[in-house]
Amino acid sequence: MIRSFLFTPANVARRVEKALGLDADAVILDLEDSVAPSDKAASRPAVVAALARPRKGLVYVRCNAPSTKWCYADLVQTVRKGLDGVVVPKIESAADLHTIDWLLANVEREHGIAEGSLDLMPQIETAAGVHRVDRIVQARNLRPYDGPWRVKRLCFGAGDYANDVGLSPTLDEPELAAARARIVLASRAAGLEGPIDSPWFHFKESAAFARALERSRRGGFQGRCCVHPDQIAPVNEAYMPSAEEVASAQRIVAAFAAAEKRGAAAIQIDGQMVDYPIVHRAQKLLDAVGSLKRK
Question: pLDDT at position 139, please?
Answer without folding.
Answer: 83
